[in-house]
Amino acid sequence: MKLNCEGCAGCCIDWRPLASTPSDHERRGPGEPLDDAYNLVPLTRDEVARFVERGLGDALTPRLWRVDEETPGVVVDGIRIAAVAGRPVFFVGLRKAPKPVAPFGRDRRWLRTCAFLDPETLQCRIHEADTYPAECAAYPSYNLDLGVETECERVEAEYGTDRLLDDDPGEYEGPLLGPQALGAKLFGYPDPDELAGVVDRIRDGALRETDRAAFVGVAAGSRPGTLEIDDDRAAAATADVLDADSWVGRAIDEWETVAEERGGVPAEFADEPVAEDGPEDGVIGTVAFDVPSGDAVEVARGAPETPGWDAVGDGD
User: Fold this and answer.
1) pLDDT tens digit string along 76-111?
2) How many H helices and E strands in the chain?
């Protein structure tokens, strides 16, 4: 499989505000995600545990789904959420942050972006690390095998630049689907009563550190193929997430603060460019011009630098 990824990152950025026909592909099927994250990357249990072990547990967040009366579920905070055997089910993925980015040759804009994406080079900071998710490494192979439109094709349709250079999915470890996903990528929260208030916070985009830690702990303590949980392992992982103080978590806090102060949020303002100069007050309409760089926010806090595209071979 050959891809042209330079200047794109369509699979890492919520670029719906830039699209004439935004995709709603994550809101199809029997369940609707409670959050509004775009292209959330589901991690396996082992990947979740690895992030926690590396001190990056504060980079993780859960996803739950709203379902109809015909789908197995439980009601929490007045919302029927997907469940298996009475346990709310969830994925764990990577958090997003508002960053000033310039994908597809456009002017810089505030867009929700994967926490690990360098906003200048549009390269992943953990691409060569052992924490790089298998789902990211395989993308878009799953889509190609399942005959589902890829983010590469969506970008091509919108901007005309060739991104998917061939449609051979190549060799990759197949996706976890069906019962084999339980406890390995799809996890069951043991006590729905504990989620009172949490479901509302997920829907409102206001999750607390303790909320995320509890979900990550359950995922890390899950036993593949079952709903069983190793309580000791779950408790240890929860504690590690609460203790985490990684560059990722600190950078997310900084990006959110800067974006709020300088007009980068809410999402409806994301289609306005980040101007390079402006009036003395530093704001043009809803967007500030004096935004910090990725190096200033992320590398200064310990993030690995990215190599730049000159160091990457064609099709990588």
Assistant:
1) 999 999 999 999 999 999 999 999 999 999 888 899
2) 9, 11
Question: Is the CB of residue 14 less than 8 Å from the CB of residue 111?
Answer: yes
Question: Is-contact 151 145, C-beta < 8 A?
Answer: no
Place of tokens 């809803």: 286
Residue with tokens 């000791």: 232
Q: In terms of DSSP H, where are the helices of the chain?
A: 45-53, 134-138, 141-146, 151-159, 198-204, 209-221, 231-243, 247-261, 294-297
Asked if residues 8 and 55 have their Cβ atoms less than 8 Å apart, the reply is no
Structure tokens at 33: 């995600």
Q: Are 120 and 103 in contact (CB under 8 A)?
A: no
- Minimal CA–CA distance to 119: which of 251, 276, 262? 251
3-state secondary structure 75-120: EECCEEEEEECCEEEEEEEECEEEEEECHHHCCCEEEEEECCECCC
**Four-point Cα dihedral 227, 232, 233, 239, nearest 10:** 120
Q: How many CB atoms lie within 10 A of CB 257?
A: 12
In order of 6, 45, 91, 136, 150, the CA distances from 42 in angstroms are 24, 10, 6, 9, 16
Percent of the chain with pLDDT over 90: 67
Name the pTM for this structure: 0.89
Place of tokens 């200064």: 300
